[in-house]
Design brief:
Length: 366
């Protein structure tokens, strides 16, 4: 009888504790969740990278409309997808994203006009398979920018004009891409000039990653200062913000924003996610026994990192003119296939069921 009584008492206590914990959780995490765009209405627009497929998914579209007021095409406007052959453009996906944005009163960031990746081979070669001259390549670049920027003039408020032109090697300056091999640094200058001519009202960005690392920050600053000093029409710098649980530090992030803002440039966070794994550049396969689990410890670390970076963003609200997440939720992210193919990552504010994570609550709690 005593054993039975003790068991009943234990179960009653457990039920009371569970109720108490749920009540505390409900107090700290309100049932009515405000959208990110509403929480940050007096700070900066909140954006997200999308595909037409995500916009056609009812649940994901609802999440987007509740939380974001700016869209970036994840892939649809990159040169390879949108201009696969010299005399052929594929507009369907890009048009669908712009149409969705216009129908719902959302802003659009164009991404991107000139990059060393996802660039069709025809751009760099002639009919005999030889590299084209600088004059030919610049003419092809101009035609591309005229067509793409011109098509969406007045519908896209900002463009990532040149993407990732700085070399990964800290001892070098500009990346030795085919753009650079054929044109030198002139392709960067011309890309901005062509984009400005195609839409004088568009805000034009240089976009890159690892900008918070001191050695790369200095090289990006060198490029931007050169462009500003020579009156090239660059208006802002995009910090891609593909970060991790321990990078960047608060000081590195603040220093980066201050340094670029000192050039009179707008700063945007263009591709935000916080990986639960350390940064890797080279793609690889999942190793035997390698974990892909979102542990409570990782969740707590991620929430703290998101809290820190958004605290910094709010401090610089007069400089930062937009924050864009790279993908909508953990259901799908580009980090599921890169750099480690098959390793599930959990880098965003919403989980695989489109529900707010602890990181979300840290971002909206201020």
């Amino acid at each position: 009888m005593n054993k039975t009584f003790r068991l009943i008492k234990f179960l009653l206590c457990a039920a009371v504790c569970l109720q108490s914990n749920n009540a505390l959780k409900a107090q700290s995490h309100p049932a009515e969740v405000k959208g990110l765009k509403d929480v940050y209405a007096s700070y900066f627009p909140m954006g997200v990278a999308v595909s037409p497929r995500s916009l056609n998914d009812t649940a994901q579209a609802a999440l987007i409309l509740k939380n974001f007021n700016s869209l970036t095409p994840e892939n649809a406007m990159k040169m390879g997808p949108i201009h696969p052959e010299e005399n052929r453009y594929y507009w369907k996906d890009a048009d669908a994203i712009v149409a969705f944005a216009q129908a719902h009163g959302l802003k659009v960031r164009g991404h991107n006009l000139c990059w060393h990746e996802q660039t069709p081979k025809w751009l760099f070669y002639d009919k005999d398979g030889k590299l084209v001259t600088k004059a030919v390549l610049l003419k092809r670049l101009k035609n591309h920018i005229d067509s793409v920027v011109g098509r969406y003039k007045g519908k896209i408020y900002a463009w990532d004009v040149v993407n990732e032109a700085i070399d990964d090697n800290s001892t070098k300056f500009l990346r030795n891409s085919l753009w650079y091999k054929i044109c030198g640094d002139e392709f960067i200058v011309k890309a901005f000039e062509y984009a400005h001519a195609a839409d004088p009202q568009a805000v034009l960005f240089y976009n890159d990653y690892n900008t918070e690392r001191p050695e790369k920050r200095e090289r990006v600053y060198k490029l931007l200062k050169m462009l500003v000093d020579t009156k090239v029409p660059v208006n802002g710098v995009g910090l891609q913000a593909h970060w991790s649980l321990n990078e960047p530090t608060q000081q590195d992030l603040m220093t980066t924003i201050q340094k670029f803002a000192s050039l009179g440039l707008k700063v945007q966070i263009t591709e935000l996610d916080i990986s639960v794994y350390p940064w890797e550049k080279e793609p690889r396969s999942l190793r035997p026994g390698e974990s892909s689990e979102f542990t409570p410890e990782k969740e707590e670390q991620q929430a703290k990192q998101y809290a820190m970076v958004f605290n910094v963003f709010r401090k610089f609200k007069n400089v930062i003119t937009g924050v864009t997440f790279w993908n909508i939720s953990d259901k799908y992210t580009w980090l599921d296939t890169y750099p480690v193919n098959g390793r599930k990552n959990y880098p965003l504010l919403f989980d695989q069921n489109l529900q707010p994570k602890e990181a979300y609550w840290q971002v909206v709690k201020f």
